[in-house]
Amino acid sequence: MIEDFDVTSDWHVAAPYDFLRRLRRERPVFRSEHLGAYVLTRYADVRAAYGDPRRFSSEGSLTISRSLTRETREKLGEHGSFLSSFVANVDPPDHTRLRRSVSKAFTPRAVAAMEQQFRRLNEDLLDRLEPRGSADFVGEIGHEPSIKLTARFIGVPEADEAFVQAHVKDWFQLFLSPQPPERQLELADSFLTYLDYVDRLVASRAKDPQDDFTSLMTSLIGAELTHREVVELISTILLGGNDTVPNQLGNTVLRLLREGAWPVPPELVANAAEECMRIDGASLGSFRYAVTDIPLHGVTIPAGALVLLSTDSAAHDESVFPEPERFLIDRPNAAEHLVFGYGIHFCVGAALGRLQLRTALDVLGRRLPGLRLVPGAPVAHRRSIVGRGLTSLAVEW
Ligand code: HEM
């Protein structure tokens, strides 16, 4: 029987649900030695903690750099605490100010305007791939349109897209997934090269503003934002856009194919996307620090302790989602999942993420109605503390 989380094991991402169910029932405030954190697993507790930033602080919660070796830290120098001023990593009042600035780029009108672009990117990709009859969904279909959309949104020139993509992958690995010491040093090199690139992008927009996110944020330097905050925002939004949405799309397509629910009828696409986010969320949860001693269900979380709010468990909480392990394409409350978080840090890109998922399902369903899994091809997940995504997914049509 599983006794603790283990990010080095496949089950941690692929199939944690029996373990999580037991925690919800028996140990709703679980002290994980492996994660070095208390874990909240019940929906009501996870939601309440997100909604209580005074007691559950985000300050430093993303900086999981404590797994970095001393050598890697030395190499990174001042950047060892990268993300320290990123919007998801700070509390009010800094958070309020940063969030206000970022939100300027995610107005409903700006998000809606991206739909046509995203649709076109998917159609173009399929024009190229369709005649082949098979592909790796993760490597060849799922990522490209989101990466290109995000790059254009940020203002990364098309010629630099591949470079940026490779480096974003590296820094994600460096900061958010466990790596052996030698690999850490390589990744740190890559990360520094990338930071230098973003710096130059900001400098060029300061001189010659365009209609993009980088220009909008750069114009706020001095007034509302610092240079470092802008660099961190751009870097993390590149990650948010490059990785989470494609991961969610891969999980979603795998689920729909396994359930025999492909192609999804247009009128069910929106709810199907929510149910897939609920049952196979691309985000496993968020970390917080306890600000004071927090008594809960007979346990006291001590001040200063790290706490994982397990949205993955919340999404499978039987008290909110009856028969949680069943996929119900028309589940009435599917959208109540917390995969985008909740409260003041609620994902600023949620509307854009949802728009991409729905658009991709719509275009893919229409263009590849015969999509199916390649029989016998292995399905493996990436190892990660906070994310769920596939390493590859062999499909044919
Ligand atoms: C399916 C895709 C996505 C998932 C599952 C996801 C998940 C999340 C979660 C769980 C949080 C809350 C973090 C916390 O409370 O600690 C968050 C925040 C955030 N997300 Fe997303 N996200 C997605 C897509 C995106 C996209 C497309 C963007 C931008 C283009 C984005 C940008 C952000 C930003 C900037 C924050 C910080 C907001 C704040 O702290 O106020 N995300 N996201």
Automatic annotation (TrEMBL):
Record bears the keyword Zinc-finger: no
InterPro entries cross-referenced by the UniProt entry: Cyt_P450, Cyt_P450_B, Cyt_P450_CS, Cyt_P450_sf
Keywords linked to the UniProt accession: Heme, Iron, Metal-binding, Monooxygenase, Oxidoreductase
Keyword Metal-binding in annotation: yes
PROSITE patterns: CYTOCHROME_P450
Pfam families reported in the protein's UniProt record: p450 (PF00067)
GO molecular function: heme binding; iron ion binding; monooxygenase activity; oxidoreductase activity, acting on paired donors, with incorporation or reduction of molecular oxygen
SUPFAM superfamilies hit by this protein: Cytochrome P450
Family, as annotated: Belongs to the cytochrome P450 family.
Protein name in UniProt: Cytochrome P450
Originating species: Nonomuraea jabiensis
Lineage: Bacteria, Bacillati, Actinomycetota, Actinomycetes, Streptosporangiales
